[in-house]
């Protein structure tokens, strides 16, 4: 099962990060958390790697609906969006919200996952324009 949605861009990493933030905001998502994996691994382990940022994106209305359907769904929230460098490309990946509905198997999550997936897809597609 493919659990992510991906776009590959020929843009600088920092520029892409800002565009991702804007695209998420336009779809009703805020960024609750930000993990700079590159900096963390360098600081904690002395390891080097490519630019790699994890953004914890949340649409409050959708999160509320998901939690009403299944209180345990918080284990899968927020929606992680990864921005990373790969060669001369910047890759943007988002966890497919359908994974949430599949893991939980609660019927009330399917419409929430559908809407979240639609919004994340729209955000990612807007990056390619």
Automatic annotation (TrEMBL):
Q: Which SUPFAM superfamilies has this protein been placed in?
A: TT1751-like
Q: Where is the DUF302 domain?
A: 35-97
Pfam family example for this protein? DUF302
The name this protein goes by in its record: DUF302 domain-containing protein
Look up and give the organism this protein is from: Actinomadura chokoriensis
